[in-house]
Write a structure and sequence with these properties.
The protein has 3 helices and 4 strands. The chain is α/β, with parallel strands linked by helices.
Length: 78
């Protein structure tokens, strides 16, 4: 089974292509609510986010396989 990267926000297509070439399975959760995302966290190796969710330690506690969180955007919205 390939490691999973969950896209919680849209990103440039080159990011998805690069992750696929590195052996990741991409899952589109851009329309999912927070509860749905939470159910997928135990399988997440990576998350691609903008600023849709706040990640508390409680929220991330079930993400035992998580290796990275990629923050996309131009830096003007924080």
């Amino acid at each position: 089974m390939l490691p999973k990267v969950y896209f919680l926000s849209p990103a440039e297509p080159i990011l998805g292509k690069t992750l696929i070439s590195l052996g990741f399975d991409l899952v589109d959760l851009t329309q999912a609510d927070e509860a749905t995302v939470q159910t997928h966290l135990p399988e997440a190796t990576g998350l691609v986010v903008r600023s849709r969710f706040w990640f508390s330690s409680t929220f991330l506690a079930s993400a035992q396989k998580l290796k990275f969180i990629a923050r996309v955007g131009i830096g003007l919205d924080h």
